[in-house]
Amino acid sequence: MKEIQEFSNTKQNGRLIPQIVQKIGVYYQVNFIQDYEEISNLVYGRASFINNLLTDIYLEDEDFKQYQFDEKTDTYSFEGEIYYSDCEILEALLERKIRQP
Asked: Tens digits of per-residue pLDDT, 42-51?
C-alpha cells in the first residue's frame, strides 16, 4: 500500500505540484502541462513535463506587487487598466514569464 501524505496550504507546499507532475509523467511516460494556483498563498504557475524535462515557471512575490486592489471599488489596477478580477492579470504575468528566454 502506498503512503498518502497530507499537506497544509503553504507557499512551500504549493511548490510540490511540479514534483507531482514529474512523477506522473515518468510513471505514465507521458508529456503534459499543469497550471496550478493557491492564490491565498501567492502561488501561481505552470509545470510542464515534456520529453522527460520538467519545467516550472511561476510568479514570484515581486510579480504579485505589479498590480493593486482597490477595496472601495472592488477592482484591480494593472498597467493603467482596471479589472474586476485578478485572473486576467495573473495569466498575463505568467505568459510574460513563459515567453522570456
From this structure: 999 999 999 9
